[in-house]
Amino acid sequence: MRTKLVAGNWKMHGSLAANLRLLEALKAAAREFAGARCAVCVPFPYLQQAHAALAGTEIALGAQNVSEHDAGAYTGEVAGAMLRDFGCRYVIVGHSERRTHYAERDAQVAAKFQAAQRAGLIPILCVGETLAERDNAETDAVVGRQLGAVLDAAGVQSLRDAVVAYEPVWAIGTGRTATPTQAQTVHEFLRAAVARQDADIAARLTILYGGSVKPANAAELFAMADVDGGLIGGASLVAEDFASICKAAAGR
Ligand code: PEP
């Protein structure tokens, strides 16, 4: 039995005042989504604020990126150990916005995944195809390659302490969501790819869906057999919407 996880990706949004309102509202609603795991992945400068605000709650903290290096002369980068210092449990790696805007390639994403685990963080590995790739029937090849890069570099055992997020690029921030069947098909493909190397790890692996998840579509997506929760962008910035998505994951 996999406990569902809902992780909010705030992206480059927030302010001290807005974060305070959002976090306080989430904490106030947390009782209603007990039974699901919940996390917020905030911008680096707000880690301390969120860490303090979430202390003593069941809401976990995460970051949105991590250096592939552990320390050193890498100006502007943030190491996994630093994220741990600020109470992070999760870190997103390989988000499509990083792959697209910052030219992160599979090998670099795999290196970040490994750096996160070296620091004791749980990486949330994002994979997903563009619309052109889907239209060319390349979805399996693309997500298989992105997952395969991590399997090759880190080995299947690394997925014992990791989360995978299927995020079709065409559904991120577009208001266009994959249908539950489209999501399930890809999730099943990903789980089967892991199962070919280790059936037990595959059965336990949390695979999130991300891409315009809203209160109105969360329950039907989370009802699919291989959808273990969501990675939520826009809707994670609205406390009521994010809480409602978490409630759907808790089966309420
Ligand atoms: C995301 O950024 O990971 C995401 C899924 O965004 P949205 O929910 O806004 O589509």
How are the elements arranged and paired?
Blueprint: E1 5-9, H1 16-29, E2 37-41, H2 47-54, E3 59-63, H3 80-85, E4 90-93, H4 96-101, H5 106-118, E5 122-127, H6 131-135, H7 139-154, E6 163-166, H8 180-195, H9 199-204, E7 206-210, H10 215-222, E8 229-232, H11 239-249
Parallel strand pairs: 1-2, 1-8, 2-3, 3-4, 4-5, 5-6, 6-7, 7-8
Please tell me about this protein's structure.
- With 252 residues, this protein is α/β, with parallel strands linked by helices.
- The chain has a single domain (5-249), classed as Alpha-Beta Barrel (TIM Barrel), CATH 3.20.20.70.
- It contains 11 helices and 8 strands.
- Helix 3 links the parallel strand 3 and strand 4 (90-93).
- The longest helix has 16 residues, at 139-154.
- It is globular and about 45 Å long.
- The relative contact order is 0.16.
- The model has no long low-confidence stretch (mean pLDDT 97).
- The structure holds phosphoenolpyruvate.
- Phosphoenolpyruvate (PEP) binds at residues 9, 11, 167, 172-173, 210-213, 231-235.
CATH superfamily: Aldolase class I
Q: Architecture, CATH level 2?
A: Alpha-Beta Barrel
Radius of gyration: 17 Å
Helical residue percent?
40-55%
Number of domains: 1
Write out the distinct hetero groups bound to the structure. Answer: phosphoenolpyruvate
Q: Which regions contain 5 or more consecutive residues with pLDDT less than 50?
A: none
Order of helices and strands: EHEHEHEHHEHHEHHEHEH
CATH-assigned fold name? TIM Barrel
Largest sheet: 8 strands, parallel, barrel
Instruction: Report the mean per-residue pLDDT as an integer.
Output: 97
Shape: globular
Structure classification:
alpha/beta
**In whole angstroms, how far apart are the ends?**
17 Å
> Which strands sit side by side, in order, in the main sheet?
1-2-3-4-5-6-7-8
Per DSSP E runs of 2 or more residues, the count of β-strands stands at: 8
Taken as a percent bin, the fraction of beta residues is 15-25%
Number of alpha- plus pi-helical segments: 11
- The CATH first-level class comes to Alpha Beta
